[in-house]
Amino acid sequence: MSSPPSPWSPPSRPGPVLAATGLTKRYRDATALAGVSISLEAGTATAVVGPSGSGKSTLLHCLAGFTRPDAGDVTLDGLLISRLGQRTATKLRRERFGFVFQSDQLLGELPAVENVALPLMLGGMSRRSATARAAEWFTPLGLAGLETRRPGQMSGGQVQRVSIARALVVGPSVVFADEPTAALDRATSTTTMEVLTRACRHAGAALLVVTHDLDVAASCDRTVRMRDGRVHGVVTNPSAASSSSTATAGSVG
Ligand SMILES: Nc1ncnc2c1ncn2[C@@H]1O[C@H](COP(=O)(O)OP(=O)(O)OP(=O)(O)O)[C@@H](O)[C@H]1O
Ligand SMILES: [Mg+2]
Questions:
Q1: pLDDT, position 12
Q2: Is residue 8 part of a domain?
Q3: Which pLDDT does position 14 carry in this prediction?
């Protein structure tokens, strides 16, 4: 990228890329997180499952810096990021994190390739370079020929693959996905998860997927089960590549 090197781009080091300890978050009438510790390793995929209201999205928002936890720390490559100011957190998110959501916030008036280029342009890259870089993602993600389509002229699965390209184009350390397949049918959901996990593994990004869908969870290296704001269990998925990532259940054990 043409933007200046980020202060958050230290040399790669052993250990988790993203780690959180003792995260708690209370709202007026709900305890969304009651002491969650979790760590994410580069190139591995973690699913977070649990009943509605168990704190899955709050966990994602705290890890990604959208929500400030009441207590607990989040570190990225060993650097404490949970106490950053709004501006710094926004810059950090733009440079180090990618996001895929259920119904994506792609801009309907922009061609797909420009949607993918947008995060690069926000980081200071010229439109021309950013669009060229963005276009490189289309063939690997099965989107060849769709570069100039508007999101409204694409299928749900194609839109999600554009979203995956947009999440990965900045070379993120962590990709966060909240219910990325909720609006898709079964077959499209399976393909989309294959594309997402493969692209993140290939790019060396840690992937965190919040989902209600156990098939989606099974496509990840491990599944973290949440209940009442706590980690209730962690299962390594037998079909996926082994991972040394850990998640612990705070005071639940
Ligand atoms: N901004 C907020 N203000 C008040 N309460 C909130 C807020 N965000 C979340 N909560 C509450 O915190 C708890 C956890 O919510 P969260 O959205 O993390 O659950 P979730 O596991 O993602 O649920 P779902 O599967 O329905 O998306 C819930 O009781 C919810 O009502
Ligand atoms: Mg949620």
A1: 53
A2: no
A3: 64
Taking residue 135's Cβ as centre, other Cβ atoms within 10 Å add up to 17
> Which atom of ligand 1 is least distant from the CA of 210?
22
Nearest protein Cα to ligand 1, atom 24: 52
Q: How many residues does the chain have?
A: 253
Q: Which ligand has its closest atom nearest to the C-alpha of 54?
A: 1
17's tokens? 């890329």
Please state the pTM of the whole predicted model.
0.89
Residue 33 alpha carbon, nearest atom of ligand 1: 14
Q: Which residues of the chain have pLDDT under 50?
A: 1-11, 241-253
Environment class of 46 (CB within 10 Å of its CB; exposed 0-12, middle 13-18, buried 19+): buried
Q: Which ligand has the shortest distance to the CA of 29? A: 1
Q: Is residue 3 part of a domain?
A: no
Q: In whole angstroms, what is the distance from residue 248 CA to residue 253 CA?
A: 7
What is the CATH number for 214?
3.40.50.300
Q: What is the pLDDT of residue 89?
A: 87
So what's the pLDDT on residue 240? 67
Q: How many CB atoms lie within 10 A of CB 89?
A: 17
Name the strands in the sheet holding 30-40, side by side, starting at the edge strand that comes first in the sequence: 79-80, 71-76, 18-27, 30-40, 247-248
What pLDDT is attached to residue 152?
93
Number of domains into which the chain is organized: 1
Residue whose Cα lies nearest atom 1 of ligand 1: it is 27
In Å, what is the CA distance from 201 to each residue of 65, 174, 205, 241?
23, 11, 6, 10
Segment 164-199, tens digit of pLDDT: 999 999 999 999 999 999 989 999 999 999 999 999
For ligand 1, the distance from its centroid to the CA atom of residue 65, given in whole angstroms, is 16
* Domain around 39: 16-249
